[in-house]
Hints:
- The chain is α+β, with helices and mostly antiparallel strands.
- It has a domain at 5-283.
- Helix content is 30%, strand content 21%.
- The chain has 18 helices and 32 strands.
- The strands form 9 sheets. It has an 8-stranded mixed beta sheet, sandwiched between helices. A 5-stranded mixed beta sheet has the order 11-10-17-14-16, with no helix packed on it.
- A hairpin with a 5-residue loop joins strand 10 and strand 11 (196-198).
Amino acid sequence: xxxxxxxxxxxxxxxxxxxxxxxxxxxxxxxxxxxxxxxxxxxxxxxxxxxxxxxxxxxxxxxxxxxxxxxxxxxxxxxxxxxxxxxxxxxxxxxxxxxxxxxxxxxxxxxxxxxxxxxxxxxxxxxxxxxxxxxxxxxxxxxxxxxxxxxxxxxxxxxxxxxxxxxxxxxxxxxxxxxxxxxxxxxxxxxxxxxxxxxxxxxxxxxxxxxxxxxxxxxxxxxxxxxxxxxxxxxxxxxxxxxxxxxxxxxxxxxxxxxxxxxxxxxxxxxxxxxxxxxxxxxxxxxxxxxxxxxxxxxxxxxxxxxxxxxxxxxxxxxxxxxxxxxxxxxxxxxxxxxxxxxxxxxxxxxxxxxxxxxxxxxxxxxxxxxxxxxxxxxxxxxxxxxxxxxxxxxxxxxxxxxxxxxxxxxxxxxxxxxxxxxxxxxxxxxxxxxxxxxxxxxxxxxxxxxxxxxxxxxxxxxxxxxxxxxxxxxxxxxxxxxxxxxxxxxxxxxxxxxxxxxxxxxxxxxxxxxxxxxxxxxxxxxxxxxxxxxxxxxxxxxxxxxxxxxxxxxxxxxxxxxxxxxxxxxxxxxxxxxxxxxxxxxxxxxxxxxxxxxxxxxxxxxxxxxxxxxxxxxxxxxxxxxxxxxxxxxxxxxxxxxxxxxxxxxxxx
Length: 654
């Protein structure tokens, strides 16, 4: 027999007790009659069937604060009904919540997916479902009513948040017991000497309700007192909703992963409260987050989740693990800046190329060619972004870069050389455009004909190598202190202007992490992840360029950048850390030696790269295939003649 125990204090406080006597709905205050009383299953029917526990006998018990058995009942789980819920609540918001939660919960219950893999939207749905189920259990049990009335109303009326000072935790185990539950106040208080005591007079205003369904354990807890902090077991109590800084984290002995009853008991009782504010957290790093779970500095908390993602006390994502970066940003649909889901914030379409640029160069109805050869109009070339982050990108990056790019070629060069902030701004903008272009490819299919396969364009990208670029893109949002040595090589080139030449062009290389943007007389080429290695290796060639460049010559410069960056032998290593005052730093370790890999280890030759980028630019000329073959074999250059002298091809156009 599965026995589930209610534990709690043995006295009542009418300020928090629901006094409806089953005459009104606990969630909406509607009057209950024989016609509208729902008699909803406390454990939803789909879950009873999924775990095959509907006919399981249980013996819930109410134990007083002093340990005395006050009451005990025996019934099956399917007989446990919520008599204080109206049919309107049951058939509307509660039913919708069940339908949203069911496909998320099933793989968690089976152990096929981890709670740390949930995105923000899924975490909120599971958290609201936990609250709804816990409150339905609580109001139906023979137990002192310690959940405030307003919490019932709050969970009904708010889709994207929980009541203040309410937490939801999750964890999974490997045992075989299908079901368990327990509810109590937060009884155990840890004193400064490490001993447990009780804080009876205040703990009546708290609650803790825990469930175990298959492999999944869930807990909802409420602690409103500022001078009493929750002590949370690091790595075991995984917060689905991170609500408050009012906590400490501690480490403990090994968790009983394979024993269902012990695992659930440890999960439930492991959530303590701390009575003394001066109690120090155990085994806590204070230098940088590498293996530590938390910082507790004067400015607040920083926590490293088991997934490797780092958040602050408000749940703000400061750093994505590579896995969560891929799951939530690349194949998910969270905001690529703040990580918000589409249910938690208003979203709008962020133009990959900013609207001011599309307008200036009359690009809205012109097209960009994707890697699969399909053309997409610039006006429709967007990625999802929350409205708030979109606005901030406009304010901090797009507006100032638009002013900078109004300058002439010479003025622009002077602005970069005279003020390093302008160079940083340009690099941020190029990084942002590059990332958005590749993020868009995660939405687009390689073949429009699904019979030929359903692969996305982005599946050919090495996304782990894009992780650093994403960190840089989010630098403004995370307020990161970025080491100047992390900036990549930037080349400013004069572009030939002519009525036969388009005034705008953009091209990127995913493997070479290089972007080129041509704006009238100005062409910018940037390598994003080389810490200026390419600049050092190419500067001798760069100095030989003596005039404005044609589109073919610009593509050859671009090909050089890609070739060098993909063949650097020892690459810079980028990393994030956090200082003692909680500042986020993005740094780089630069190798002692700078050299390219041997020719016999080439991935692609310079000629092959150049051929890829200009083959479609060459029309139906005489000996076209012969010319293309010469380019591919590295026997033809648009920059220099056979003597190594610069080819001023612009003269031929005038």
